[in-house]
Amino acid sequence: xxxxxxxxxxxxxxxxxxxxxxxxxxxxxxxxxxxxxxxxxxxxxxxxxxxxxxxxxxxxxxxxxxxxxxxxxxxxxxxxxxxxxxxxxxxxxxxxxxxxxxxxxxxxxxxxxxxxxxxxxxxxxxxxxxxxxxxxxxxxxxxxxxxxxxxxxxxxxxxxxxxxxxxxxxxxxxxxxxxxxxxxxxxxxx
Length: 190
Hints:
This protein is mostly helical. The protein contains 10 helices and no strands. The longest helix is centred in the middle third of the chain and has 21 residues, at 92-112.
């Protein structure tokens, strides 16, 4: 008998299944990984998450393992190199947004001690457990995601609207949006 999973998971795609089963919704407190997810969610805007999953390893390589300090120092030559790289989403605004986000993240780290402390403050440091029954019950964004978006944009970030922030919050375990019939829902409640 196969495990019940969220309806959005294309079972014929092992990469997607693995992402859902091992990563999506698992609480993340590592600044580098949180930054990675913010960048990838922004890169995904208007595209499929499957495309981003396929490009993820290459993103890690060309974005220096998502080292916040290193990405914040990227110059115009690095941007031009990235714009020639078919292994990433070659959208100049999204690449520039990733670099600006690194600058914002570095400032947040200095003010809050970590990017994690700042981002998790929008959910009071705890995973929200809404118990969604169906995909239709999952909102496009939440008040917490909207507040996160406003705070990040006020600091100079872009490609970071409420929908992107909500997708990020789902991915990094700030909200458990595995539907109640999914085997991961109960596993991630504790």
